Amino acid sequence: MSVEAVILDIEGTVCPISFVKETLFPYFVAKIPELVHSNDPDVKSVLAQFPQQYQGDLGSHMQSLVANDVKDPVLKQLQGQVWAEGYTSGQIKSPLYPDVIEFMQRSSSKLYIYSSGSVQAQKLLFAYVEDPSNPTGPSLNLQPLIKGYFDINTSGKKVKSHSYERIVQDIKTAPQQVLFISDNILELKAAQEAGLQTLLAIRPGNATIPDMHGFRTVESFASLQRRNCN
Ligand SMILES: [Mg+2]
């Protein structure tokens, strides 16, 4: 069955989960003391959006959100701002799997991203990709290959089928012509309920999935056919 559009998850699907946990999160946590004392009006206005009860100790609040991997929209926005600086200064490059880069470059389907990381963070991740053939050289900008980005602010939670209904409406494509690839069974179930095609990404470093619930799996995007993606 052919697909017109492919929606990609990020963590555990196009790049290792460890990139977020071991690179991006620590980079952000190290900047928390600076953020809390920042005089930058952009930073201050975002910090003010945290609930009143946390305003007395925003540093601990943010640390706890990061430690517990809470998908908090305010936190995500701040992280986007901090990571932007890391990427543009060359301190961070995203380690996309080489087979993903090749797939994106040759895909004839329209490519979209849906991640709980903010759209801003997603754009950065694809704008500063480590070149597998030259890791210390200039990064690759894959943004031109991506038609659109979705996050929990634009579309809702990734485990809700309504979110996928909304996305296929946004991209004006019939759900059965859309393939969603993710490492998360709950996300795949939600997408399937909305009528999308699905593939379960199996990648090194992902948690073992005891029950695949019958989802088709993909270990390398090199196995996705040139035209049909499955
Ligand atoms: Mg994932």
From TrEMBL:
Location (main, coarse): cytoplasm
Binding sites annotated in the UniProt record for Mg(2+): D9, E11, D183
Cofactor: Mg(2+)
GO biological process: L-methionine salvage from methylthioadenosine
Cofactor note as given: Binds 1 Mg(2+) ion per subunit.
SUPFAM superfamilies given in the database record: HAD-like (SSF56784)
Pfam families to which the protein is assigned, alphabetical: Hydrolase
Pathway stated in the Swiss-Prot or TrEMBL entry: Amino-acid biosynthesis; L-methionine biosynthesis via salvage pathway; L-methionine from S-methyl-5-thio-alpha-D-ribose 1-phosphate: step 4/6; Amino-acid biosynthesis; L-methionine biosynthesis via salvage pathway; L-methionine from S-methyl-5-thio-alpha-D-ribose 1-phosphate: step 3/6
Alphabetical keyword list: Amino-acid biosynthesis, Cytoplasm, Hydrolase, Magnesium, Metal-binding, Methionine biosynthesis, Nucleus
Domain of life: Eukaryota
UniProt KW Hydrolase keyword: yes
Subcellular location: Cytoplasm; Nucleus
EC class: hydrolase
GO-annotated molecular function: acireductone synthase activity; magnesium ion binding
EC number: 3.1.3.77
Catalytic activity line of the entry: 5-methylsulfanyl-2,3-dioxopentyl phosphate + H2O = 1,2-dihydroxy-5-(methylsulfanyl)pent-1-en-3-one + phosphate
Binding site for substrate: S115, S116, K158
GO cellular component: a single term: nucleus
Primary role: Bifunctional enzyme that catalyzes the enolization of 2,3-diketo-5-methylthiopentyl-1-phosphate (DK-MTP-1-P) into the intermediate 2-hydroxy-3-keto-5-methylthiopentenyl-1-phosphate (HK-MTPenyl-1-P), which is then dephosphorylated to form the acireductone 1,2-dihydroxy-3-keto-5-methylthiopentene (DHK-MTPene).
HAMAP family assigned to the protein according to its UniProt record, in alphabetical order: Salvage_MtnC_euk
Family: Belongs to the HAD-like hydrolase superfamily. MasA/MtnC family.
Subunit and partners: Monomer.
Name under which the protein is recorded: Enolase-phosphatase E1
Organism the protein comes from: Zygosaccharomyces bailii (strain CLIB 213 / ATCC 58445 / CBS 680 / BCRC 21525 / NBRC 1098 / NCYC 1416 / NRRL Y-2227)
Biological classification of the source: Eukaryota, Fungi, Dikarya, Ascomycota, Saccharomycotina
Name of the gene this protein is made from: UTR4
